[in-house]
Amino acid sequence: MNQNPSPDPDKIGDLFWGVIKPQFLRLALQLDLFSPLDSGPATPEMVAKEIKCHHKPIRALLDYFCSLQILNKSGDEYSLTPTAEAFLLPRRKAYAGDMILHYTSHELWDNVLGALRSGNPRWLGENFVQDAWLESYSTWRIPKSLEMWQAAGARPGMHDIFRILDLACGCGIKSMALAQTEPAVRVTCLDAPEVLVVARDLAERMQISSQIKFLPADLLNANLGAPAGGAANRGYLAQGAKLNVPVIITSKLFLPLIRR
Question: What pTM does this model have?
Answer without folding.
Answer: 0.85
